[in-house]
Structures are given as structure tokens and as C-alpha cells.
Amino acid sequence: MAREWVTNVSHVEHDTFASLARARRRRARSDMSHARASPASGAREVGGRARGRGRASRARATASRALRGADGEHSTARDFVHIRNVCYSPAGAGRDILRDVNLSLPRKGLTLIVGRSGSGKSTLMTILAGLSEPTSGVVALGADETRASTPSAERLAQVGIVFQFPERHFLGTTMLQELTFAWPQTQNGFTKRRELAYRMNDALHAVGMERIPLDTDVRALSGGYKRRLALAIQLVRDPAVLCLDEPLAGLDWQTRAEVTALLNDLKRDRAVVVVSHDVEEISPVTDRAYRMENMGVLTDVSDELAGARASAFGAAADSFASFD
């Protein structure tokens, strides 16, 4: 079975690269013909494209500034995730783990959530991913912030989650078995398998594992590549939101930098939510940051921990037991 899947995926990769090569050759011939026909117009076109890129860059910067109001709060105009007054009390717990949690997330970008262990960070992610249902409140996905809760089955389809130490949850022996676990196996599922094979090719490229043989034993992978594989498994599903619980835990410094760079790339196409105590590494690629306190109380600390505005740990330093 593994050999059959390798053959199918190889054919998909060959067709994909052949199509890309043909497109590049056609584009190159078109550009050369245009340049020979009118060098001056070609120069004007290049200059126009450069000016266009400059205008687009300024427009993006203006839009980015518009996302934050005069008081520094984020606008909800482009938010995709809407969590309103969410409470969660596990059966038999006798108390709330989350109480009246409110959070909105944009369609793209990286949101960092920090806080002490036990404050409810991972619980909030499992609710967002559809693995748990809130006791009360609304968890909605989509541009309409007034809509009712999105059913858990739909959240499962739109949200991917990578747990802390995801390698402990691997079920397959080889990379191929792990990537294709739960793919449809019936004859009628061929079209779906072909679509998933294309996505798998893109996912492996996205995480930098396209050159690793698919029959590689997952136990032979380094810690960093196991994290990459876990990310690829979720990217095959093409989720709108990707949640990661402590993605840098247990990794060496070089691998931490590689995984952080990967998260910086992934946030350009989807909403990425990271729960982590490794603030120093993730802050430079963070767009929004929140500190969670007991029972899920959230405070926006973007000015301290997000991107260029970040200062080392900032006022959130007291949220980590190791700094006490």
C-alpha cells in the first residue's frame, strides 16, 4: 500500500513540476518578444510596475495602521474568529476553567497567547478547534461577527491544531502513512485522494520536507522535522486557522529558529494562534499578543510582545513561573 501511494504521489509531483516549467517557458518567451518589439515601452512597463508595487506597499501599510484605532485597540472589520462570552466547565469539575472569554482574530497573521500554566490557554484552543464545546457563549468563524456559534464539525474542518510534543500522537510508521492517515480508501475516493496528494505536495514544500523520502521512518526524524511533519499533516487539510500549543518546546536553539521562521511564512496565508512560553523567539514574528490570567481573562499586550514593538518579555514577565 505504501509503495502504491509513493507511485501516485510521484506522478502528481511530476505533473505539477512539468506544468510549472511549461508556464515559466511561455512567460519567458512572451517577455522576450515584448522587449524586442518595444524596448522603450518595456522600460516604461518596468517602471510602472515598480511604481505600482510602491503604491501597493503604501496601501498595505495604511490598511495595517487602520486595523488599530486611536486607542490602540484592534478593529474587528476584518476579523474571522469571534469568541464571545465563552464559559467552559468540564463535567465533574465543579468550577469554570474559562469564564466570559472574548477574543477576535483576523483572517491572517500570528496571534501569541502567553500566561501561566493552568490559566486555560490550551482549553481555549481545543474549543476553537471543535474538540470541545463551550458550556455557554459563542465561537463563530467567518466575516459575520453577529452569527451564531459555528458547529463543532465545521470548526473541526476549518481549524487545525498541533499539540505540544505532537510526535507522541503519531500513528503511522512512515511519513507516508502518517500523512495519509484517514484518507478515503474506497474506489469512489480516488478524486479526493488525488486532491489530497496535491495538497500534500504543497504542504511538504511549505515545511521544507519535499526532499525527504516518503518511506522514511518517523522515528528516524529529528525533533525539528517531527514538528514540521505535524505541521504538514495539518496543512494538507488546508485549515483557515492553525493552532499550535508550545511549538518550540524541547527543541534546540537552531531548530527553534527554523520553526519560528516557518511560522512566519505560514501566517501569510491563514490565522495562526500560538500558545507559548518561548516569548523571546516568537515575539519578532507576532502580530497580536494577549496575556491570559486565571479563568481565561485576556489582556492585550501587543505593544509589549508583538513584532517590532516587543520588549524582552515586557509586563508579561510575571506570567512565567521561571521568572518568579
Description:
- Helix 6 crosses helix 7.
- With about 325 residues, the chain is an alpha/beta fold.
- The strands form two sheets. It has a six-stranded mixed β-sheet with strand order 5-6-7-3-8-9, sandwiched between helices.
- The chain has helices at about 1-35, 40-65, 120-130, 150-160, 175-180, 190-205, 225-235, 255-265, 280, 300-305, and strands spanning about 80-90, 100-105, 110-115, 135-140, 160, 240-245, 270-275, 290-295, 295-300.
- It folds into two domains: about 1-65; about 80-324, P-loop containing nucleotide triphosphate hydrolases (Rossmann fold), CATH 3.40.50.
Termini separation = 54 Å
Radius of gyration, whole Å: 22 Å
Q: Determine the fraction of residues in helical runs and give it as a percent range.
A: 40-55%
CATH topology category name of the largest domain: Rossmann fold
Structural class: alpha/beta
At CATH level 2, the architecture of the largest domain is 3-Layer(aba) Sandwich
**Sheet bearing the most strands, described?**
6 strands, mixed
Output the CATH homologous superfamily of the largest domain: P-loop containing nucleotide triphosphate hydrolases
Number of structural domains: 2
The overall pLDDT, averaged over residues, is 79
Question: What overall form do the CA principal axes indicate?
Answer: globular
Estimate what percentage of residues fall within beta strands: 15-25%
What is the CATH C level class of the largest domain, in words?
Alpha Beta
Number of strands: 9
Q: What spatial order of strands do you see in the largest sheet?
A: 5-6-7-3-8-9
**Multimerization status:** single chain
Q: H/E series, N to C?
A: HHEEEHEHEHHHEHEHEEH
